[in-house]
């Protein structure tokens, strides 16, 4: 199985569920055994509590492959994030940087990445976040490589518009620097608003994207993410898994 298709799920999909034992059960229920855990279900500044969470997922047969999305600003306590990732056996953290602090934050992230063996993927969050468009990503990756790369969120990539936000082109543009993928899909209205949909059923050219990822040597972590139906996301997530495996 290619790394692009060896995927798990983002725990934010289950954000209305705070009990990690319940989340782990739902992860298995949708048909995967890997998870990227976000701060909704965990405090990454409480290592003893985190280690208990790691045991909960392992007992359920679920591997934690990443944590995030976290914002790095260069504060000393961000070391905690790398300690937590390493304690879980994860090799990736999904992050945001901020325009007023990215230089010291990237320097610190590089050092912590080397120390803990955990890579950093900049999560592109469309027009909402610094690092959401390719010119900025190019510069941040230039500063931070090889420890810092990109985590391509396919839906938010598309949110900046079809000329710059083409996931298939990003798979080629960032070859060798793609450390994470969030498989997500949006339908867009004429007023530029969006709605979540099953991955591959909206604007994302899913097969072309996966093919491009595979052709460019992807070796990172991948998760599906569906943000609608927070009270009961399981049926849609099952369909996302089925679409990926098709």
How would you portray this structure in words?
- The chain has 246 residues and is an alpha/beta fold.
- It has a single domain, classed as TIM Barrel.
- Helices cover 38% and strands 21% of the residues.
- It is built from nine helices and ten strands.
- It has helices at 20-29, 47-59, 79-88, 102-116, 134-144, 154-159, 167-173, 206-215, 234-245, and strands at 8-10, 34-37, 63-72, 92-97, 119-123, 148-153, 178-183, 185-188, 194-197, 221-224.
- The strands form two sheets. It has an eight-stranded parallel β-barrel, surrounded by six helices. Strands 8-9 form a two-stranded antiparallel ribbon.
- Strand 5, helix 5 (134-144) and strand 6 (148-153) form a beta-alpha-beta unit.
- Helix 2 (47-59) packs parallel to helix 3 (79-88).
- The radius of gyration is 17 Å and the shape is globular.
- The protein starts with 7 loop residues before the first strand and ends with a helix.
Structural Rg:
17 Å
* CATH topology name: TIM Barrel
Identify the CATH class.
Alpha Beta
Q: Could you spell the SSE succession in H and E letters?
A: EHEHEHEHEHEHHEEEHEH
**Oligomeric state of the chains?**
single chain
Spatial ordering of strands, largest sheet: 1-2-3-4-5-6-7-10
Q: Indicate the mean pLDDT.
A: 97
Number of helices: 9
Poorly predicted runs of 5 or more residues: none
Let me know the number of strands. 10
Summarize the structure.
The protein has 246 residues and is α/β, with parallel strands linked by helices. The chain has helices spanning 20-29, 47-59, 79-88, 102-116, 134-144, 154-159, 167-173, 206-215, 234-245, and strands at residues 8-10, 34-37, 63-72, 92-97, 119-123, 148-153, 178-183, 185-188, 194-197, 221-224. It has one domain: TIM Barrel, CATH 3.20.20.
